[in-house]
Write a structure and sequence with these properties.
Blueprint (H helix, E strand, L loop, with lengths): L1 E4 L4 H10 L6 E4 L13 H18 L5 E11 L20 H14 L6 E11 L5 E12 L15 E3 L4 E2 L5 H7 L1 H15 L16
Parallel strand pairs: 1-2, 1-3
Antiparallel strand pairs: 3-4, 4-5, 5-6, 6-7
Helix pairs in contact: 4-5
Amino acid sequence: MNVHVATRNSGKLREMEALFAASGFTLATYDRYVEPVEGETSYAENAALKARALHEQLRDAELPADVLADDSGLEVYALDGRPGVLTAYYGGVGLSWAERRRMLLAELDASGENDRSARFVCALHFIGDGGQEYGAMATVEGLIAREDRGAAGFSFDPIFLYPPAGLTFAEMDDAAKNEISHRAIAAAGLLATLRAAGIVPWRPRQAEEPGP
């Protein structure tokens, strides 16, 4: 099942390829994809906006296909939920993710707040070739580390600490992160919805090996 993803973020695409690997999806990007202007209030609305933009662009190019879009962000409680929906633009257009992380850490330190609680949010939106639309949303709770830790992942992963593991997302290997991340939970929810709708076939679990 070929699905085009509305993104230009290679790290996000790699992560989504891993999350949807068992679904039968073959993910690809469209090199002429033009990103729409996103809103400032809703992850779900932004994910739908991106999916609809790509769906229309593929149809105009006579390349109709299923499409998938993601909108995600980091919400820091001591910063009143910022950067939130505007995570990708935090600090202004053109900054590197390393610069954005340094800016966020400096802003949090300057706030005088001791609370370093935060959460990642992810909204996914799927549009079938026939135009049917489905969405899913998920969050994962964590803390903001005091400095970059780890070299994996992307965006704010190096400063997002997941307390049950004692690691930032950037310190986890892909398999571990893809068990618990906001995007992993949203992907599982979306796949369950698509299976219930008959878009994706049910795949029975393999029988467990008999014990000794």
